[in-house]
Amino acid sequence: MSEILLQIDGREVKAKEPMTILDAAQIVGVKIPTLCNHDKLESYGACRICVVEAETSGRKRLVAACVYPVEQNMVVTTRSAKIDKTRKVLLEEMLAHAPDSVDLRKLAEEYGADGERFEKEASFCILCGLCVRYCAEIKKKDAIGFVDRGAKREISFIAEIASRECWNCKECFPLCPTSALQAAYVLTEALAFPESARKD
Ligand code: SF4
Ligand code: FES
User: Who's near 99: CB < 8 A, 6+ residues apart?
Assistant: First the structure.
């Protein structure tokens, strides 16, 4: 593993392949907001709230820190008017789904995001994929997945698997940054779980 030297908000950082910008920022205590990232899961790059500006060979671009790999002599900026505005708009879009989410509201306050800017969306899910990936990667059960496409895309429990596996697990619940997951579970449980499948 070769050492990679880069700069994050003016601080020199010694990183290694295959670290991401987020990993490198954590080494020097630079905080970058995240919503779809989890230490135990593969990086996913869904929410984009971790957007930062990365400059390499004189070229600057906005990238997702949780998936973008560090590069030699890269110069990273984690806060600027442009970055903050991008995060603000992303939060406004997510707040249209989950206006009461504590995580989103905390970030909205920091970035001045207006929760009323976009019309409310029917689904509370912000498609971060934490629940789906946790169930697949850690529990190896695949009891939950994405359904539909585009604006209709959301998560759904697979009733046959969920009725066997979820009742005694529910480890994905605290990962959800909105209340979408619990609501989907309760609905699945009410509609599809046979009473006999439950074990207290
Ligand atoms: S239900 Fe929650 S954890 Fe699952 S993808 Fe949607 S927002 Fe993320
Ligand atoms: S935390 Fe990086 S894209 Fe979600």
Answer: 115, 120
Q: How far apart are CA 111 and CA 97, in angstroms?
A: 18
Dump pLDDT digits (tens) for 161-187. 999 999 899 999 999 999 888 888 888
Ligand 2 pocket mutation pick from 21, 34, 63 by most atoms within 8 angstroms of CB: 34
| Spatial distance between the Cα atoms of 62 and 68, rounded to a whole number of angstroms | 10
From the list 89, 101, 145, 153, the residue with the least C-alpha distance to 123 is 153
Centre of ligand 2 from the C-alpha of residue 35, in Å: 6
Task: Specify the ligand 1 atom closest to the Cα of 172.
Answer: 3
Pocket of ligand 1 (CB under 6 A): 125-131, 155, 175-178, 180-181
Q: How does pLDDT run across 3-59, given as a tens digit for each residue? A: 999 999 999 999 999 999 999 999 999 999 999 999 999 999 999 999 999 999 999
Tokens 């950082």, residue? 13
